[in-house]
Amino acid sequence: xxxxxxxxxxxxxxxxxxxxxxxxxxxxxxxxxxxxxxxxxxxxxxxxxxxxxxxxxxxxxxxxxx
Length: 66
Fold this sequence. Notes:
- The chain is of the alpha+beta class and about 70 residues long.
- It has one domain (about 5-65): CATH 2.30.170.20.
- About 30% of the residues lie in helices and about 20% in strands.
- Strands 1-2 form a two-stranded antiparallel ribbon. A two-stranded antiparallel sheet has the order 3-4.
- The longest helix has 11 residues, at about 55-65.
- The chain is globular and about 35 Å long.
- The mean pLDDT is about 90.
């Protein structure tokens, strides 16, 4: 059974053989489903909680409504 990872930025599931992996100097590993997610997190330094199209944003907003 193939391992399914989740995107470090948007929370989308990534199938085996797709996506990108980014490793920092301190050994932290990030996996991204697209270059859009990589750009937003690494280059633009955005927080997933503040970007409306991410799963993290949706989960946080749903918790605040209840």
